[in-house]
Amino acid sequence: MLEEFEGAATIEKVASLCRRRAFVFPTSDIYGGLGSSFDFGHYGVLLNQNIKGEWQRSMIQERDDMVALDSAVIMNPQVWVASGHVSGFSDPMVDCRTCKLRFRADHLATSNCGKRPSKRPGEDAQCDLTEPRHFNLMFETHVGAVRDDASVAYLRPETAQGIFVNFKNVTSSLRVRPPFGIAQIGKSFRNEITPGNFLFRVREFEQMEMEYFVPPAEADEWHRYWIEQRVGWHTGLGVRPSHLRVRVHDADELSHYSRATSDIEYLFPIGWQELEGVANRGDYDLRQHSEASGTTLEWIGHEERYVPYVIEPALGVGRAFLTFLCDAYDEEVVADRPRTVLRLHPRLAPVKAAVLPLIGKNTAMVEQARGLYEDLRKALSAEYDDAAAIGKRYRRQDEIGTPWALTIDEQTLADGTVTLRDRDTLQQERIPLDGVKRLLLDRLDEAWHPRG
Ligand code: GAP
């Protein structure tokens, strides 16, 4: 078991590249930002789309037992009463009367004192901590014109509840029967008190959650199945297996709804942390909503009738984004010059192919290059670049993780071949212009392994 992250990435280096190369910007930057909120730039949007696309492909498109859902962010507030979030979705917090900061009681050992950041809260003689108090993480808002207790509503802190309250709609309108799943991607909001480490813990984030409804007797087996599937998804997209582990929750750390949870942890540069949770939620949610709403949520088959158990893999898009970037980030020296490269899985890479005329001022080369680029972009994400020296253009593409660069040169004009440069191996091969699109599409379908 590794103790330390293997590689060149630090959270700071990844955040700096993200800003420099338009993946992620601090939000409302010109007003001084807003703690731990971020905006996604061009390449960040593309990477996010690819992550969500791969999740959707493996969860929905390539399966027979899954359907999709997109439920509302603001739901009837009774949903959150029944789910237990109004009474129980809270963290124990302590306040320091001296520095006026608030800390999570269970994170004191890793927090910094407000007056003396070299010490932990409570370690300095001046620290004056309160007893732990519970602080609800849900953001409140009001629906309608009147702001009173009756108009209080919540921004959802998880997408899962939207799935449970639609159980009857889905089972009565689609041809599903247990075991089957409902998958959804959407924004969730939590008023985290100790956010931080760039995208790792933020207040507004997207989740990819799937609720898999099974006969109760099969729940343990399906729980194991989904843990394995989800680990395979991460490694299949290039995350090094040595940076992943599965950690079973102790009884005292289980969420209020959980019978058993295993975290898929990633060895971030800040240490092992939860990447994705896979929980066995039992029949907690369907029973709670049946009781509170008066609508029975159960499976009724020909000869059977029961409340299914639920297995839930839940992953943050931003946390996956940070994981893929930390794992892909690399620095090396090539021909005496440093290069930073994102060795992203080609299917995740924001841009798959860069088309570069060797000489940007050569009209014939530009024409050929534009033609190739305009053809390629119909099938995959491509970029055209004729500014700056060729080495500089390669470096820029390396930094955004573009797996293939196609260079149009004198020989292209003579024999209709182009140079295909591989981001990871730096090998160059000559291929016919008219075979480029097919070759790249085939390569996108092939298995890919980190570091060549
Ligand atoms: N429905 C279950 C659920 O929401 P969770 O462990 O609280 O479980 C699931 O969240 C996943 O969502 C986490 O494993 C993480 O990937 C992501 N996540 C949770 N809170 C987050 C936050 N504040 N910032 C970024 N991602 C977060």
Keywords:
binds glycyl-adenosine-5'-phosphate; 29% helix; 452 residues; seven-stranded mixed sheet; alpha+beta; single chain; 13 helices
Shape: globular
Give the strand content. Answer: 25-35%
- The whole-angstrom Rg is 25 Å
Physical arrangement of strands within the biggest beta sheet? 3-9-10-16-13-12-11
Major sheet description = 7 strands, mixed
Describe it for me?
The chain is 29% helix and 27% strand. By secondary structure, it is of the alpha+beta class. The strands form 7 sheets. The chain has a 7-stranded mixed sheet. Strands 20-19-21-22-23 form a 5-stranded mixed sheet, with helices on both faces. α2 (42-61) crosses α9. Glycyl-adenosine-5'-phosphate is lined by residues 158, 160, 190, 192, 201-202, 205, 207, 209, 274, 276-277, 312, 314-316, 318-319.
Short description:
This protein is of the alpha+beta class. Helices cover 29% and strands 27% of the residues. The site of glycyl-adenosine-5'-phosphate (GAP) has 18 residues, from strand 10, strand 13, strand 16 and helix 9.
List the helices and strands and how they pair.
Elements: H1 11-20, E1 24-26, E2 38-40, H2 42-61, E3 66-68, H3 78-82, H4 85-88, E4 90-95, E5 102-104, E6 133-136, E7 140-142, E8 152-154, H5 160-164, H6 167-173, E9 180-189, E10 204-214, H7 219-236, E11 244-248, E12 260-268, E13 271-282, H8 284-293, E14 299-300, E15 305-306, E16 309-316, H9 317-328, E17 329-334, E18 337-342, E19 353-357, H10 363-376, E20 382-384, H11 390-400, E21 404-408, H12 410-415, E22 417-422, E23 428-432, H13 436-445
Helix pairs in contact: 2-9
